[in-house]
Design a protein that fits this description.
The chain has 114 residues and is mostly beta strands. It contains no helices and eleven strands.
Length: 114
Amino acid sequence: VQLQASGGGLVQAGGSLRPSCAYSGSIFRITDMGWYRQALGKQRELVANILSGGSTNYADSVKGRFTISRDNTKNTMYLQMNSLKPEDTAVYYCTSKYGFYDYWGRGTQVTVSS
């Protein structure tokens, strides 16, 4: 399994970005997916996840601003990020989990300027 995150970038506070994560493999539709982020000097934290059945979970800091989704026909996961804040600046990683198998992508940088 390989995960390729893309769609990060530099945006002003209040702006939006929509990173995506392409999953190469045959069992995407039954795999739980998620986004984590790590800011400079801070621990990695869960941003949001979406289970194979479609249920979602969000960190309190992003609730109401971020929306995680998946397209099982394209083996792709998305993170719609609105009302971005400077504190959202981080490297964003996509992850997949199926049973004991846990995979991480290389990350995409999101920078929010004030």
